[in-house]
Amino acid sequence: MSSILKVDTIQNTGGTTGLTIDSNGFVLPKAVAFSAFKSGTQSISASTWTKITFNTEDFDTASQYDHSNSKFQPTIAGYYQINASLAWLAGASTAALTRFYKNGSHYKNGAYIYHSDQSLDDYQVESSVLVYMNGSSDYFEIYGYNIGTSNTISGGGEISYFQGFLVGV
């Protein structure tokens, strides 16, 4: 008995390929993933929610991340895992917060760090959230907040980053 191997693709109504079935029968989903980071420092004013700029891309598999505006706007509807890490320099404030913004508005709180010992130095906080994105108008951004005095977010791909990937539709 002979078998027939066929490579095929499945497209959404917009005509873009959603997945491919290769000649071995493996389903290869369209990979939507990005990783961006700060290339330098960013000052954060005291008691003000400030959009964090992630201006350098490690990768962007589907051209969904806008590094000039530091926002992720996928064109495929589905559930996305979003990760953020902020490295705060010279921990002079008593608290620092990370917040996820969807479509320009507060969506979920991320990491919150508080200390009463003003001698603490640098610290790094990570946050994650799972969110549904509609594949057309929805977009995501990261904000930071500092209580007390002004502070600085440190740059570098290993410490201050913004990442996301499609988990499922």
Structural class: mainly beta
What's the shape? Answer: elongated
What is the helix fraction of residues, given as a range? under 10%
- Uncertain residue segments: none
Between the first and last Cα atoms, what is the distance in angstroms? 37 Å
Computed CA radius of gyration, to the nearest angstrom: 19 Å
The helix/strand series, from N terminus to C terminus, equals: EEEEEEEEEEEEEEEE
Number of strands: 16
In a nutshell, what does this entry contain?
The chain has 169 residues and is mainly β. Helix content is 0%, strand content 54%.
Question: What keyword list fits this structure?
Answer:
54% strand; 0% helix; 4-stranded antiparallel beta sheet; 169 residues; mainly beta
Describe the structure.
The chain contains no helices and 16 strands. It is elongated. The protein is mainly β and 169 residues long. Strands 4, 5, 7, 10, 13, 15 and 16 form a 7-stranded antiparallel beta sheet that branches.
Architecture blueprint of SSEs:
Layout: E1 8-11, E2 17-21, E3 27-29, E4 33-37, E5 42-44, E6 50-51, E7 56-60, E8 65-66, E9 71-72, E10 78-89, E11 95-102, E12 105-114, E13 123-133, E14 140-147, E15 151-154, E16 161-168
Antiparallel strand pairs: 1-2, 2-3, 4-7, 4-16, 5-15, 6-14, 8-9, 10-13, 10-15, 10-16, 11-12, 11-14
